[in-house]
Structure formats: C-alpha cells, structure tokens
C-alpha cells in the first residue's frame, strides 16, 4: 500500500502530547498505534472518539484527524477545533471533505487508497498514522519499520485466514 504524505505549512516537531481523532475502524487503528508505541513514546497519546478535543490541546499538541471516508462529522469537528486551538494538525483519509480541507488549510495530510470497507482497512490506517508520526519525528525510522513489518505480517495473516475460511 502506498501512503503518500503531502507536506503542509505545519512543521512543529517538539510536542507535549498527541491526540488522534477518529471513529470506528479509524479509531481502532489509533488504539493500535497507542498500544504499539506505548513503550517508546515519551509524551502522552490520547485517542478521541467523539466530537470534542480534550481541553489540554494547544499549539504544543499534534492532532491527527483520521476518517476513512473523509466525511465523518466527529472527525471534521475535531479537525476544526484543532485549527482554532492552533495545534499542529495532520489529516489522513482516502479523500472526502477532510482531504479537501487539509489542502485548503495547507495542513500536512496522508492520503491512503480507497476501495475497502473501513474496518477492513485498519492495517492501512495503522501504517498511515505511523507514517505521519514518523514525518513529525515523534517516532524514529526503526520503530516505524518494526511496527510496519508487524502490520504487514498481520495483513498477510488476515488475508490467508479470510481466503482459507472463504473456501470452507
């Protein structure tokens, strides 16, 4: 899977905290990132599954808004709040309003390929969020590679299991 990062004007690198906003399968990928990076991150990472960002979000926060379709209203609400709070903002989606807003607002974004249902794209969302964390220097290349390789292995196992059980 190719996940292209489109760099915006937001280049801050020294964060006090991270918030990943998403719903459904997008939030699942964020939860996986939180668990997989827990031993390496030296700053708090919170996953928001709703309309509102936490009160602590500020210019020293990296907010990643994730929506498979790009049109999830809760994620778009968090995106807007992050802009208003002048947080360092990034977006990830297959397209939709989220990518259009990121382009218009000159915000860094990752666009992942469309085609699969959101819950079936969890591994791709996981890789996209990790790529954004790597882009902002929150995680290093070694950690990205380790988790990406694990995600690739998991995707292969899921594919094998699905193919095997489809024949049963």
From TrEMBL:
GO biological process, one term: carbohydrate derivative metabolic process
UniProt superkingdom: Bacteria
Gene3D superfamilies the record matches: Glucose-6-phosphate isomerase like protein, domain 1
A molecular-function term among this protein's GO annotations: carbohydrate derivative binding
Xref: InterPro entries: SIS_dom (IPR001347), SIS_dom_sf (IPR046348), SIS_PGI/PMI_1 (IPR035484)
Transmembrane segments: none
SIS domain span: 8-149
Name of protein: SIS domain-containing protein
Taxonomic lineage: Bacteria, Candidatus Saccharimonadota, Candidatus Saccharimonadota incertae sedis, Candidatus Minimicrobia
């Amino acid at each position: 899977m190719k996940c292209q990062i489109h760099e915006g004007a937001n280049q801050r690198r020294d964060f006090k905290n991270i918030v990943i906003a998403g719903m459904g399968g997008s939030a699942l990928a964020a939860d996986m990132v939180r668990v997989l990076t827990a031993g390496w991150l030296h700053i708090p990472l919170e996953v928001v599954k709703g309309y509102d960002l936490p009160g602590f979000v500020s210019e020293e926060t990296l907010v990643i808004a994730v929506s498979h379709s790009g049109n999830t209203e809760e994620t778009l609400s968090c995106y807007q709040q992050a802009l208003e709070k002048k947080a360092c903002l990034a977006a990830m989606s297959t397209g939709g309003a989220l990518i259009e807003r990121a382009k218009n607002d000159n915000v860094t974004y990752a666009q992942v390929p469309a085609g699969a249902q959101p819950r079936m794209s969890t591994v791709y969302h996981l890789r996209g969020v990790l790529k954004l964390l790597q882009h902002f220097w929150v995680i290093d290349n070694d950690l990205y590679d380790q988790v990406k390789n694990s995600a690739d292995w998991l995707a292969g196992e899921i594919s094998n299991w699905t193919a095997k059980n489809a024949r049963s």
